[in-house]
Amino acid sequence: MQVTGKVGLFGAAGAAGQSIATALSAAGRDYRVVGRSREPLQRAFGNDPRAEIVTWYPDDPRSIEAAAAGLQTIIYLVGVPYHRFAQHPALMEKTLAGVTAAGVERLILIGTVYPYGRARGNPIREDHPREPHTFKGRMRLAQEQLVLAAHGQRGLETLVLRLPDFYGPNIERSLLNGLFVGAASGKRAQMIGPIDVPHEFVYLPDIGPVVETLTRTPQAYGRWWHLAGTGTITQREIARQAYALMGTEPKLMVAGKSMLRVLGLFSPLMRELVEMNYLMTEPVVLDDSALTALLGPIEKTSYQEGIRRCVEAAREAAARGTN
């Protein structure tokens, strides 16, 4: 593995960006965090002397080029509102134009299982057909295709790292965060069902070291890879463990597809969740043996330990009055 130059995290303020930044800092590497607003970046990274904070306009190629200047590798984590997924390909097209103009050598897209559509049998490897049957899956596939087509163009190397659903301490955008908050406070938790189907989750703090390693692994580029969780677990079992840590029985309110449709009459987010509810009834489980063969054994946090850390973090946040 070769040592690389400076890394930029585009769309850094979210939980994945913070996990990767922690790994870069632990490896003694300087990095740049890039986002639309300085305040959340300052809050998340302002105390790390290795972090350089830069703001940008992700729909402006000149702003992208300026944000990318002097970077060797970019890790793309840019999110869009769930009801505006059509922005993903357009933003990626502008990003690729800006970063290649800046002379960036490598780009890593942190991706999802959406482009696969329904699994033909779990766990799936990287050679599984990409046949998305949802709008969001098609938009993510279009984004990926732009990234992979850019590999070898104008000195740029690219890869996609696909993740399953994620969870971790105080990660508000996680499907499971409300469950941990409910367990820690002794209140009823709202969940998206069904909750008795085995599902795969990756503990988000585990991804940082993997991504940091990929930034300095030249042979990884030109394709996509999977990073799996530690097997499957049902949401009901996660709830049982979470509430048991607080000495109580689970208190759950489960919204299935029909309830999501009703809630969607009042909430754009709930309306958008209906389309992706197939992942709760027909989950996609990833096989990451190819990545393990490339990088060696990957350290992963067990569900038992991950759940314990999440409940503890939610309990501490509640004590501080931040939940």
UniProtKB/TrEMBL annotation:
SUPFAM superfamilies: NAD(P)-binding Rossmann-fold domains. Pathway: Bacterial outer membrane biogenesis; LPS O-antigen biosynthesis. Signal peptide: none annotated. InterPro entries: Epimerase_deHydtase (IPR001509), NAD(P)-bd_dom_sf (IPR036291). Transmembrane segments: none annotated. Residues 10-208 form the NAD-dependent epimerase/dehydratase domain. Gene3D superfamilies: NAD(P)-binding Rossmann-like Domain. Belongs to the NAD(P)-dependent epimerase/dehydratase family. This is NAD-dependent epimerase/dehydratase family protein. It comes from Paraburkholderia sejongensis.
